[in-house]
Every structure is written in C-alpha cells, then in structure tokens.
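Our platform keeps sequence and structure together, in a single record for each protein. This encoding replaces a full spatial description with a residue-level series of whole-number codes. We quote a single record here, exactly as it is kept in our systems:
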Amino acid sequence: MYGYFPAEMITPRGWLRSQLAIEAKGLFGNLDKVWPDVRDSKWIGGDKEGWERVPYWLDGFIPLAWLLNDEDMKARARRYVEAILDRQCEDGWICPCNEEARSSYDVWAFFLIGKVLTVYYECTGETRAIAALERSMSCLHRLMKNGTVKLARWGKARWFECMIPLAFLYERHPRTWIKELAQMLREQGLDYASVTESWKRPLNKWTFETHIVNMGMMIKYEAVTAQLLGEEIHGLADTLWEILETYNGTVVGTFTGDECLSGLDANRGTELCSVVELMYSCEILYAITGDNVWMERLERLAFNALPATISDDMWTHQYDQMVNQIACVRFPGKAFFRTNREEAHLFGLEPHYGCCTANFGQGWPKLAWSIYRRTEDGIAVGMMLPSELKTRIGDAAVTLSVDTEYPFRHSGTYTVTTSQPVSFALTIRIPAWAKNVRVNGQPFAGENYVLQQQWEGTSEIRVEFSDVPHFVARPHDLRAVEYGALVYALPIEAEYIMLEYVKKDVERKFPYCDYELYPKSPWQFGFASPSLRVSEEQGDEIPFSSKAPRVTLQAQLAPIAWGMADGYDSVADAAPGSRTELAESCSMTLYPYGCTRLRMTEMPMSEKV
C-alpha cells in the first residue's frame, strides 16, 4: 500500500538527528574498528565470524550513514559491500563458506545478506547490488530445488525474511523462479500459526518456536509472503500479536523473552534484538497494510523499549531489559533468566551473545527512514518526527518538513514547499490516543488528516493535540503510568561499576567495556494517589537522557513491603508482599521509561487509595 522513499531524500532534524549522531559516534558506528567479529569477519576475507554479524551490522549501518550523509561512514559501508560482492562465487553463492559446507551452512545469513543488498541499493542506486542479489537468489533456488540446501534451524525459523529481497527482485525483474523459491521456503519453513499453544505457558526450555527474536520477526510472515505471491492477507499478524501480548506482553509494547517467551511478570527480560526486529516488522506491516495500528505499536517500542536498554552515549547495551529492573548485577549462581546466562542484563559490549551488538543499530535509522511513505496520490507522514523530505512529484520539486519535539511535546508544524503548482494528497497520521486534536486551529476527529489540493509556494499545517497522564492495569493488580506515547517509571539511582577484561580474545575496554549497575536509592513503593502532574523540562543534548529528561511526571508514592524474587538478592519479586503504606507518602518524579536504566515501572496502588 505504501512505498519507501530513498534514504538520500530524507534528512533527520532536531532530536532525531541527535539520536542518530550519538549512535554513529558510539559502539554501533565503530564496530568495524573495535569488534573482531565485524572488523576481521570472513565476509571480507578475515578469519572471524562469517554468518549473521556483518549482515546484521550493515543492515543498520548503511541507512545510518546515508541518513546522516556521512562520507566516512558511506565509504566504510561501501568497502564492506564491495568486499562481499568481490567474493561472490561464479554460480551466485554469496556467503563465506566453501562449496562442501553449503549443505550444512545455515541459510538464515543468506536471507539477511539479501536484505542488506536491497538496503544498499535503495541508498546508493548501485546496480551491481541488484545483479549480485539476483544471482545469489537464483543460486539458492537451484540448490533448494535439487535438494542440496534444505531449511533447518534458523533458516527454517526465519524463512519469511527472504521474502523481503525476493519481493524487491520481483518488483524490478519478474521471474517465475522467484515465486517458486518463495513457495519452497514456505513449504519447508516453520508455520508459527500452528505452534501458538506453546506461547501460553512459559517454560525454562529453549526452542525455536518460542525464541523471542523469532517472535519479533515472524509477526509479518503472512503479509510479506502474501504480498509476493499475490494472495489475500487475512490479518494473521494481529491474531498472533494478540496471543503474544495476552500471555507475554509488557507495558512498553514488547514481549518478554529471556531468551524464550517468559510470561507476564515485570521482572522478566526482553532481548534487545527482539525490540528492533519487532520495530522493523511494524514498519513493514504498516507499509503493506496501511493500518495505523502498526505505527501505534512502533511508537510504543521506539520511544520506550529501545532507548531504555542502551546507555546514553550508546557505547553499551543490554541483551535483556526488565520492566521492573532494580539492578544489573551478574548473578553469582543460577541465572534468574529462563534460558539466558548470568550477565545478560549487564550493560556492555556483547553481554550474553553478540547478535544484539551487531543488530541493535538498525532501530533508529530504520525508524527515521519510515517517517515518510509514498502513496498512490501523494505522501503519507506516518510519524510526527523532526525531519525533512525532498522529492519530486511530476515536474515539481517538493520539500516537506516536520518541525516538532514529539513525543516529548504534543504538537508539530508540517511545511510544504513546491517549485511550481502541483496537486497531491498529504496524509498525516494522528496518534490513536490523541485528545482535543486541532489542525490549523480547527477541531479534527479521525486517524488520518488528508489534505488533497493543489500546492503552490509554501504552506503550513499546524497539528496540536493533548493527553492526560493516566494509570493502566497490569498483571498482579499492579499499575503503570502512560502519558501520550511514553510510559513512565520511577528511576532508581545507580552506582556504575566498570569492568574491563578480555574474554575469548575480545577486549572490553572503555568506552566499550561492561558495567554492573547497583541500586543506590529505594525502589519499594506503591502509588499513594491517582494524581499525576506533568512537568515539561529543557533536557540536554541527549534525547532520552537518564540525567535530564525532557518531560517528567510528579506522583505521590509511599513505601511498601516488597521483597526479592525467591533465591535472588538483585531481582524484585513479581509483586509486593503487602500494599500497606509503611510511612507517609511523598511527591516523587517519574521519568520516561526510555530515560531510565534502573527503574520500577509497574507498582501497586497502596491500600489507602
């Protein structure tokens, strides 16, 4: 339904550009300099990891470089892609393994490098990428048809990711074999709709069917497959989302998974890879279906879950985040997580596994890339984020800019400038939660404001709306606070203990070292009043700053009896032992969830309320 604009047409502005710049200066923007699995990868002729990590990294690094228009980053991205293309075999095989190993090579990485080549072409227009993609997919078709390659493990679980590059190819060069390959992938791949019963009762058991990153990816599997094969979409994504949310949902829009689905308790973890993959699925589903619910879900993830699990300077990240996270301390014995190790919630270079190290960087640039979408009759703005689009409609040069501090503020100005008169429709999505919506001062009711007209010169559209901070019910009779697109939490002051060391020949050294976070302020509280008061703040240069948030809430909280999870001294129990107020309540400041590293998000109403 909606198409993408090339990244070179989009310029992030304001806080969004600052966020991308922080990422570029941080760990993700420097992995090719400091991390052996990218710096010395087999993909470019080295001797380190030759499977998913370089493709994961390029999938985010390429759009980051082009959105920032950073020539050094562009050159580094080109060096990697050119090195990969130079090593492509004559028959089209593109992954770094010898011919004898192809049958055992997990082709998930094959799908992923295919996605990277589509991203690279969209950013650069370099036709060599399309030629290499067509040769590689034709090779995969041939090897699957003759039985040399059969889907297994990650390839079987993530088969639908290959629909992205296949659809890209088919749109440009329709070939019968492309749809044949899509059919073979679907036939051999995991049908997630048949395994949903396993999502309803979390187990301390690792399976592909309940792996949280697979959950984030698979939400889109019906839509991307049906789009390519010309089939009807029956809304399976919404059905699967509802099941996952009912049994494993969090208040910040994620599903628990540490590392497999983990239930509804607020002390359970969610893997960072699943956050960015779920964001990407929402972006794709919005493009295919045009349903605004995917933008609502995307915003909840992007403005809450994503920044909360990465440090302010973006040099360190967690593998697992917790909604109620009172410490990030290595467990001395058995890990609290169902299937992850004892350091998965530390902030560091690659806590637990390095997949998130390579993959987390796609979140912000792909979000920025998804602001504007092509429609049959014009331009749709899916998110009110500070940015500018320069494109052409007919013979007219069109510039569309959005001036806003959303989600920290609830207004924005859309400015359209054309080089000559031109007719098209401008569609502006209005958040579903927005109240008292006004467009150019006039009341508006609806989910999309559509302005179909002839545009000439410069025109401005001012959009304003409001919300009231409010409580939402959570499991165990707990409550969480929402205001607009943001969830709020009680921040816990943290003591950072820096850990520098070498493990498996990988050095952790400042600024890409590891950190344990110990709590330095109390966390055992309940809400003592339904009253919540908004304070708009100046903030600092970090959009989701843990030191100077741009908006806060004042709430009355009272201390209550809340113990630790059984057998642990650094994990809050799933629910308090009592809601009795142990002392007088006091006014305390709640931060946006994305601005917290240690926090209590879900708390009870005290028995006096």
